[in-house]
Amino acid sequence: MEIEDHGPEATVARLEDTLELCFYALSQGIMLAEDTHAQNGWNPRADPQMFSHLVRREALELIKAQNPDARDEDNLGAAMSGLHLKVGETDQLRVWHGSAGEVRVPTTETGRNFLKQRSSTAMYLPMFGAAEMPSECHTILLWEHKDGRLSRFTLSRPLDSESGHVIVDWHESLLLRFTQRVDDIPYRRREAAGERELQSS
Predict the structure, then answer these.
(1) Rg for the chain, CA atoms, rounded
(2) What pTM was computed for the model?
């Protein structure tokens, strides 16, 4: 039986289109949150949780048009509320707002169970049975913003949590990878009355 490669290069390749969409959607969400705060004279620093929620809300609408199974989640506490996407038969991706690049431990058992998986470099021998082989790859897309733009866009593969910290298999920074290409990419958003094209501004 072929074993799926869950290393960073293979995983990013499988998730390429979804990651590109997430980058675009989060960027649009940040623009919306910035505009909302500016129009109302609000200081984003006074209520950072609301800013993150506005970003997530707009991002979810854009992502669901391409991935109808995407859903929001709230198992990290309000400031860490994120998105959950299933991509193909192999990958589950959670999109979380981070703080200084740290992947925080979820507050629910379901969230903590998501972190638990075998290392991508572990050896699997057929003689021990296919049941021991990993069937899914769980990853976390961590985003942060600064000055109206994404300042962090990192894909991480967790292994578990211990003593209040997430044990990470690997990190892959993708900020530069998508920054230079997304501005020129059109996305389509499905509506009840048809489709209209969304152009990045």
Answers:
(1) 18
(2) 0.81
**Model confidence over 148-197: pLDDT tens digits?**
999 999 999 999 999 889 999 999 999 999 987 665 555 555 453 344 33
Q: Helix (H, G, I), strand (E, B), or coil: what is residue 141?
A: strand
| Rounded distance between C-alpha atoms, residue 124 and residue 88, angstroms | 23
- 147 domain-assigned: yes
| Cα end-to-end span (Å), the chain | 47
Assess if residue 60 is contained within a domain. yes
Assess if residue 37 is contained within a domain.
yes
Instruction: Identify how many contiguous H helices and E strands the chain contains and give both numbers.
Output: 4, 8
